[in-house]
Amino acid sequence: MELDLLSSLYVFMLAAFIGFEVIRRVSPLLHTPLMSLTNALDAIAVVGAIILAGELHEHHAVLARVLGTIAIVAATSNIVGGFIITDRMLKMFKASGSKKA
Amino acid sequence: MSGLVNALRNSQLPLEIIYLTASILFILSLKWLSSPTTARRGVRAGEIGMFLAVAGTLLHRGIVDYTWIAIALVLGTVIGIPLGFVHMTAVPQRTALSHAFGALCVTLVGTAEFYLRAPDVPKFLMAVLSMEVILGSLTLTGSLMAAGKLQEVLPQRPITYKGQNFVNLSLLGIAILIALMLVMDPSRTYLYPLIVVIPLIFGVMMIIPIGGADMPTVISLLNSYAGLSAAAMGFVLDSKLLIVAGALDGASGFILSVNMSKAMNRSFTNVLFGAFGQEQTTAAGKEEAKPVRSATAEESAAILAAANKVVIVPGYGMAVSQAQHKVRELYDALSKRGVDVKFGIHPVAGRMPGHMNVLLAEADIPYDKLLDMDEINGDFQQTDVALIIGANDVTNPAARSDTSSPIYGMPILDVDKARTVMVIKRGMSAGFAGIENPLYYLDRTLMLFGDAKGFVGNIVRELSGGGHA
Predict the structure, then answer these.
(1) What is the torsion angle, in degrees rounded to the nearest 10, for the CA atoms of residue A83, residue A87, residue A88 and residue A89?
(2) Beta carbons within 10 angstroms of residue A7's beta carbon
């Protein structure tokens, strides 16, 4: 358990550093799509919600099922909506001279 | 085929490999977002990673009932599709709403996780779980409040009262104290609801004093909180993939918050607890009405047509009056006459980071004409006309020179260095912070009074019709 947490901390620390370095390079031009994309990726929390709603629980089974189900709805709407709007926004960014859509 | 399914069901290794692949795809997704030419590939990578992770999880051997999961996935998709197709002007409130949804998911899963594990919750786990739930709850209501203000369902003006900061900080302090008590002894389950409810209240109180122009910072900050709470959830569930995604989101929100604060020359604490609004009455009242020069659409069109180099500075006013398509027509009309037209965009113009870029891109203005403050500021000295559409404080030269100004030190667009400055504005009322803008009284400044969309439309008509001459 202790070791698990420690390795989780390593993962968090490394991911945060990668995040800083990668995201620092994103042009201010794309900061709005950046926010909607990271928001969609963040909705990977749906994985936890799916396990919560679908696993067998001895106690609090109803609570887990209900909260898990609502959580899946919330996260899924972020995944679907987030990817759609990010792509819609990015499609609009065109360089000079490129043909109009 | 059933052999493959069974193999996948019987070992966790394939699932872990799928999660690892998804993590890599998520990082690549953000890396490709660094340039508009590769950005859409980034979205594809994110989608594939997401699909792999969700499909892999559905094959997770512990899942016994798919009915509710299926219903929830369908329902989430049904809600998500319209949220993906909102109008571009509604993107800030949509973003705030999606932070709220993300936070809702995290808070609910954390709550269920607590009751499933209590009373035997290890100390470290309880601490992370508390962080997950506190950040999740305050982000939930905070984002809903922000979305309400942006949608103008709630008043945009900051609401302040005496002792506000004390009340807010006390609420947060109490929530943290209760979380500590739970860490000491997780069997006190009766305390748990408090670390949800108190941060929910704090989230509302936190946004009450925040005005519209502070929204870019606040949305970024809420974005960061949403990411951190998801990462905390990853610790609780021991999911490295979730930790990675949460850390990326947290880092992104943090970088954007820092950018926004820098662009306003304010600290986080100042944005959250500073209440800019207090300056309003004093600053606006003391100034005498000074003479300004105004011009008509016809005169403006003539000056613009004679210029070689024009920089357009858009602000929230352009978004409000939906003038971006008329601005595009102006851009076309001037470009056709050989005028070099560029756009100068301040980081905090609009209601969220990058807001102006999205609106102008929507209007089909090439992105290489959209320049960041640092890129454009050197150009103003060689600029014939700086045309300001619905922006105010970000062009206020008092930020450079007047130490008594509340925005002193804030980096601004140096529009006053251009040969002629044109400001499209409804009237002489002060900007969001109620600060006088000396720019309007300069000899080289022409005030164009009217609605942004209407006025730009009139200029375009003058330019294309050749005027009445």
Answers:
(1) 110
(2) 12
Which residue, among B371, B107, B394, B354, has the nearest Cα to B252 in the 3D structure? B354
User: Which domains are seen in chain B, by residue range?
Assistant: 1-80 (no CATH), 91-275 (no CATH), 290-465 (3.40.50.1220)
Cis, bond preceding B411 (omega within 30 deg of 0): no
Q: Write down the pTM of the prediction.
A: 0.89
User: Given an 8 Å threshold on Cβ–Cβ distance, is A81 in contact with B353?
Assistant: no
A54 vs A57: CA distance, rounded Å: 9
Chains A and B: how many Cβ contacts under 8 Å?
Answer: 370
- The radius of gyration of chain B's CA atoms, rounded to the nearest angstrom, is 26
- Give me B25's structure tokens: 């795809």
- Residue B341 sits at φ, ψ, to 5 deg, of -110, 125
Q: Phi, psi (5° rounding) for residue B210?
A: -100, 130
Of residues B214, B393, B414, B416, which has the active-site annotation?
B393
**In Å, how far is A65's CA from the nearest CA of chain B?**
8
ipTM of the complex: 0.94
In the block, residue with structure tokens 């006053």: B416
User: Is B73 in contact with A72 (Cβ distance < 8 A)?
Assistant: yes
Distance CA B214, CA B261 (A): 9
Mean pLDDT by 10 residues, chain B (469 residues): 56 86 95 92 96 91 86 96 92 95 96 90 91 96 94 82 83 94 91 95 90 85 94 93 95 90 79 49 49 87 92 91 92 92 92 92 93 92 92 87 82 92 81 74 89 92 69
Identity of residue B77: T
**Does the annotation count B379 as an active-site position?**
no
